[in-house]
């Protein structure tokens, strides 16, 4: 190929990229809302740690100009200045960022804050997954939003493979009931619609409070005794799990206490609502399996 032909091809490639970047985007988010943008978003604000991780996994991490606190996965996300947290953000700074779109997590975010963002006239994309089986499609939708379909597809397929492997591994595990404790005073657990309940399901376990609809219900000791879980998992902040579990030891009436099936688990990725939650789930499954009674 001649030098002239090479230059022409290069210029055509640049022109194609530029044309793509300025092409209108029409997508549907995870909650079924239709969104149309005049061009691919170049400046994205994320108002949830899980949404931040999903954007990076979909290949749009370099477009994230502001996440919220606790957006620690992947490590590159920690380098981006925070705009606030899931409960409250700096609205003036949000306006100054000239964001093309704001990605929110409707179930766990602040509804008033999301409404305030919409009143500013900023497009809002609702990213929401309640089960690991929903992650691949959510990643692909984010890839369509950002024009990073190839990267999103690769991440989605890797996640599908990881999910299939984990599902197969514990498909025939002996059934056990588990209290997943996420706070100590008062005692908070997770309801059946929370992603961590799906983590237990993947491990071949059943959330002992899985019938509750709230994402993070408060329960008392009497309710735990009444349901008498086979295991208690303390999904605690670093350094706190041992203290949480020690408070259960006086209650020998519980099967989990009598059988010494009190499990500390401090991997914060489990609560992150991003793809790395599946990696944390695999680690949790191993601990649960180690405590199962021999069949």
Summarize the structure.
Helices cover 40% and strands 15% of the residues.
How much of the sequence is in beta strands?
A: 5-15%
N→C terminal distance:
69 Å
Helix content: 25-40%
Structural class: alpha/beta
Q: What is the count of DSSP helices, taking H or I runs of 4+ residues?
A: 11
Average pLDDT confidence is: 89
Rg calculated over all Cα atoms:
22 Å
Strand/helix succession: HEEEHEHEHEHHEEHEEHEHHEH
Shape: elongated
Total beta strand runs: 12
3D structure, described in words:
With 295 residues, the protein is α/β, with parallel strands linked by helices. 40% of the residues lie in helices and 15% in strands. The chain has helices at residues 3-21, 49-57, 91-96, 111-119, 135-146, 149-169, 195-202, 221-227, 241-246, 255-258, 276-291; strands spanning 25-28, 34-37, 44-46, 64-66, 101-104, 124-126, 176-181, 187-188, 205-207, 218-219, 231-235, 262-265. Strands 4-3-5-6 form a 4-stranded parallel β-sheet, sandwiched between helices. The protein has a 4-stranded parallel β-sheet with strand order 9-7-11-12. Strands 1-2 form a two-stranded antiparallel ribbon. The model is unreliable at 1-19 (pLDDT under 50).
